[in-house]
Amino acid sequence: MARDRNDQAYTRPVRRLLLTVVVLCLVSLVLIWRIDNPRVERMRAEIIDRVVPNMEWAMAPVTGMARMLDDFQSYTRLYEQNQELRRELQQMRAWREAALQLEQENARLLDLNRVQLDPELTFVTGIVLADSGSPFRRSVLLNVGARDGILDGWATMDGLGVVGRIAGVGERTARVLLLTDSNSRVPVTVQPSGQQALLLGDNSLAPALEFIEDPEDISAGDRVVTSGDGGLFPAGLLVGQVVMTPDGRVRARLAADYARLNFLRVMRSHPGTTLSDPGGLIGPPWPLPDTETNTAPISAPLLETGELGQ
Amino acid sequence: MIDPVTRHIWTYRLIYLALSLVVITYKLLPLGLGNIGLPAPDILLALTLAWVLRQPAVVPMASIIMVFLLADFLFHRPPGLWTALVLLVSENLRTRRAPMTAFPFLFEWGAFALAVFGLLILNRVALWVLMVDQTTLGLTLAQGIVTVAIYPIVVAVSKFLIGLRKLGPIDPEAAKAA
To answer: Which residues does A262 contact at the CB level (< 8 Å), separation at least 6?
Structure first.
């Protein structure tokens, strides 16, 4: 026992020193992350790139089993599901009829206009590898990355609706920030009324719609589509439907099936044309010679305070 | 011939690393995307602190750094912050465990709860100082409560399935544990 105590007296300061050094290193790592975020995030993407595909052999069977279990559970509700599906099918028949008519009309109108549909809106399909693992981050990892030409900011959809956008690209993997993440903000349009709004993710399955001009014009069931503002997303991708919560907030029920994210489409979007200059005026070129002399006195005091005037 | 105490310690060190990898992998599985309700407990933290409180030698500092740094990177947390805090708290518990070994389980549980909430609060304060976007306080507290609630299960599993018993102050392994 006496030897142990001796031992402790010897090792404890060393241990404490070691702990201090390690903690300082970790804290400086955090500070570096805070200061030079892109570089550390690139490092993170590289680590994920290296680690997660190696886990795939272990993850695939477990994920498969869990999904089978899910499906099996849904068998037990077979009867009600069947009823529900029949009802939906009935509605769908009506919609199909309407859609066919609209399609014909649309084709006729397009023919009249000779419109070229956007050929650049193609997609890359990826498989969901992993989710974020944290209860507060809503993101998934796809098995496509920079190798497949994925870029940051591209929209991601499942078969039906928008799921999120690419935030972080590794060589072989890409991270999709879901619309439900609390960092997600997407400009949207609420369809029949054409109101612009912002879809704010808040860690719930139905993100909130904020900054609506006239909430009275919006009713439950309205379609929410991306507006394409800010060049973030292509315009017109389906996001979901408006729902009103009992506390009076307007939310969007997402069209994408978040419970079963498996295959995702990454929409290859190209930067939209932006208006950067005020547009050419008809007349002499813009900074007129005599306006330059007018602006000179304004910048003169700056020079004096800077002691550049010698 | 390796002496049995050393072999025991090294076996459990490997078991700890393997279990941590399993927990991390499980968390990464794209299963719980749809259900957003109560946040999932931080099993990794419960496991680590439980083992630190029961047999400190099998969870050396190096293991904690490796496991939690990997988790930080994979779970999209600020890299290093949570690791540093867990390291500090676990070292703190390690030095304080000697008098605690004589007390009943409830006391140990209380120490764990204190550690978890201390960690969460320190983490929030650090993120606030660094001006990082945070989730709501309610969610963080809910996660803390769930993590504390799961602690007896973690302890039971490690005791009855893995065979990790609590070391008293007079055990031979405790001497090595310092």
So the answer is: A127, A128, A158
How many A×B Cβ pairs under 8 Å? 131
pLDDT at position A238? 86
Instruction: Give me the residues paired with residue A126 across strands.
Output: A264
Mutation target for B interface from A71, A136, A257, A261: give the one with most B CBs within 10 A: A136
CB contact under 8 A, B33 and A131: yes
The per-residue pLDDT for range B107-141, each reduced to its tens digit, is 889 999 999 999 999 999 999 998 887 777 888 88
Mapped onto helix, strand or coil, the DSSP state of residue A175 is strand
pLDDT of residue B32: 61
Return the H-helix or E-strand segment holding A121.
none
Residues contacting residue B29 through CB under 8 Å, at least 6 positions apart: A59, A62, A63, A66, A130, A131
CB contact (8 A) between residue B73 and residue A48: yes
ipTM: 0.83
Please, what's the largest Cα pairwise distance for chain A? Answer: 98
Q: Which pLDDT score, from 0 to 100, does residue A127 have?
A: 87
B25 and A47 in contact by Cβ < 8 A?
Answer: no
> Which chain A residue shows the shortest CA-CA distance from B69?
A26
Task: Name the B residues in 14-73 with CB < 8 Å from any A CB.
Answer: 24-36, 39-40, 61, 65, 69-71, 73
pLDDT in tens, A120-145: 677 888 888 887 767 777 888 888 98
Q: What is the pLDDT of residues B24-51, one digit of tens each?
A: 888 887 766 655 567 778 899 999 999 9
Instruction: Pull the structure tokens for residue A124.
Output: 């890359």
B77 burial (CB, 10 Å; 0-12 / 13-18 / 19+) is buried
Q: Tokens 């693992």 appear where?
A: A133
